[in-house]
Amino acid sequence: MPKQSSGRRKTGSIPRRRSSLFSSKSKVHEERNGAARRMLTRRGSLRFRIGMVVGGAMLLFAGIFLILSSWILTDYFGRVQNNFTREHLTQFATVLNREAKSKLRLVRDYAQWDQTYDYMKGQHPRFLEENFLPAVNTSDQDLILVFDSSRKLHSFICPFNSPQIGEMPEGVNVQQIAGSRLLSNQPRASLIETPAGLMLLAASPITRSTPSSGDSAGWLVFGLFLTPPRLSEMAQVAGISNSGHPFPKDMGSSDQIRSQVLTDILGPVTISFPSVFANPKIDEGIDGSITFHPLSEKGETLISIKDSATIYLNAMERKNWVLILSAAGIIAIVGIGFIVIDYFVTRPISQLDTAMQKMSSAPAAISRIEDSRDDEIGRLATSANSLLGTALSERRDAIRQRELLASILDSAFEAILAFHTVRDASSRIVNLELAVMNHSAERLFRISAAEGRGRYLTDLFPDLANPAVFDRFRHAIDSHMPLTFEQAAGALQPSGWYHFSATPWEEGLVITINDITERKQREQELAKTYAEMDRFNAAMVGREERIIAIKKEVNDLRCQLNLPPAYNVEAYE
Q1: Each residue of 368-401: b (16+ CB within 10 Å) or e?
Q2: Which pLDDT value is given to residue 54?
Q3: CB burial class (10 A; 0-12, 13-18, 19+) of residue 212?
Q4: pLDDT 10s digits, 124-152
């Protein structure tokens, strides 16, 4: 027989004890599968999905918010730090310009002093010694230069080099000063670079105290070295710290922030410093520079300024705490939001789902689902209650109909059996599996319905397993045509003749078996009676025919003797 395949578990003729053992193992296996299914159900539940979607969306929003907040705060405080650095450098240039203005007023006062004018005219030859030696230098100048009207150096004194006051400081180019715009009709100030540091120069034409009293006799120039201590003092006034060392000429970079400040004494001043975002050593401060155009348009002087990045660094430190607290707050908000959504949305849906599952598994155990909410969930619960009532009513009707059908089946004298078809891989019917049997069938096959359910027709009724009968069953199912036949069955108790009626239904066959042994016996006895009557009738008919023949012979003999017939034989014909 071809390989059988069926959606039902084959029971066969397994003993009850062995079947119960398999049943217990099957229960354990089903419990494990049930636990796995419940876990998968939780993961696939709406509550889990809403939690995942809402939590994921809020965490994604939190991540984007933190990233944007970090970028915005970093950019904002970086710009603030850049603006503060620009303001500090501008303030330093202003302080330096103010210092230059102070020196310019001082040199103008000395240049318009009559003794200075007389010194240039040769009337007061010890003017420099009497006024600018270290012992009497109240103007606190490091270098005093005197040029005549032809821009030639007339005399100088250098208190900075004391006691060698007659030595010119290294790096001071007198010819450059004489040919520069520093010597003009108006007081001017500028800066020059020397090995000893930056020097602030202030020059004013030498005239009488009353300018209209005569022409200029030359120029008086004061020089002040901007030593690191002096630069630090000026930087402190500006609110910054200063390194006091000039930068190299090629310190320009594309990452530098540049701006120009126009001062009334030192002229245009260029401020340059690296941006906070392009400074890898921001912890060490911001190295800025101030560029001046001291004596000519081509020359320039750089002052290095180191400003602290306290605002940016403190802001970045606090930014981290702000982001950490924001992240904690967002996580708390996400948790609270999830709890609120779970309490007002997903939990009622989950409770409704649990009630619906209980209703589907044991409808009679649930009387009513809570539907006090005045929203979609409440309306859904009301619909579920209506559905539950309909389902319970239909279930009661189905139970009554099933009980009625069972009582009808059990009250029938005929044995009634319902089978499912068993097909092979090519969908060909290879056997029939018992699904239902009534009490008459139980008595006929001497097996209970529980024991027979799931067994094959070939096991229950071997006489029907012969190809001729089974092919008729197969044809009836495939053609959806009922089938009736009678057959002797010695395997059934009692043995005898049975009438079989096979009616197809969906994917199966309903067989009705009726014991017709008594009818067959009566039919056999009646047939014997009919045979005896036929033999008696045949015998009686032959005797009448012989009598009639004899009567005819007697009539013929009497006719030969000219006697009238003795018998009327025409009535028999």
Answers
A1: ebebeeeeebeebbeebbeebeebeeeeeeeeee
A2: 76
A3: exposed
A4: 888 888 888 877 766 678 889 999 988 89
φ and ψ of 88, to 5 deg:
-65, -45
Please say if the pLDDT value at position 190 is more than 50.
Answer: yes
* End-to-end Cα separation, the chain, in angstroms: 68
Taking phi over 0 as left and psi of -120 to 50 as alpha, with beta for the rest, 421 belongs to beta
Q: DSSP letter at 298?
A: S
Taking alpha carbons only, the member of 419, 361, 34, 15 closest to residue 23 is 15
Q: Answer for the pair 412, 440: CB distance below 8 angstroms, yes or no.
A: yes
d(CA 45, CA 35): 15
Of 163, 147, 154, the residue nearest 201 (C-alpha) = 147
Q: Long-range contacts: 392-397, Cβ < 8 Å, 24+?
A: 392/363, 392/364, 395/363, 395/364
- How far apart are the C-alpha atoms of 21 and 29, rounded to whole Å? 13
- H/E segment holding residue 162: none
- In order, the DSSP letters of 167-231 are SPPTT--HHHHHTSTTSSSS-EEEEEEETTEEEEEEEEEE--SSGGGS---EEEEEEEEE-HHHH
**What is residue 234's predicted lDDT score, i.e. its pLDDT?**
81
pLDDT band at 20 (very low <50, low <70, confident <90, very high): very low
Question: Which is nearest to 440 in space by CA: 515, 505, 381?
Answer: 515
* Cα–Cα separations (whole angstroms), residue 343 to 51, 336, 346: 12, 10, 7
User: Does residue 21 register a pLDDT over 60?
Assistant: no
d(CA 492, CA 508): 23
SS3 content of the chain, % helix, strand, coil (to 5): 55, 20, 30
- Cβ–Cβ under 8 Å, residues 85 and 277: no
Pull the structure tokens for residue 288. Answer: 């800025």
Task: Report yes or no: 98 and 106 within 8 Å, Cβ to Cβ.
Answer: no
Residue pointed to by tokens 């520069």: 180
Residues in the chain: 573
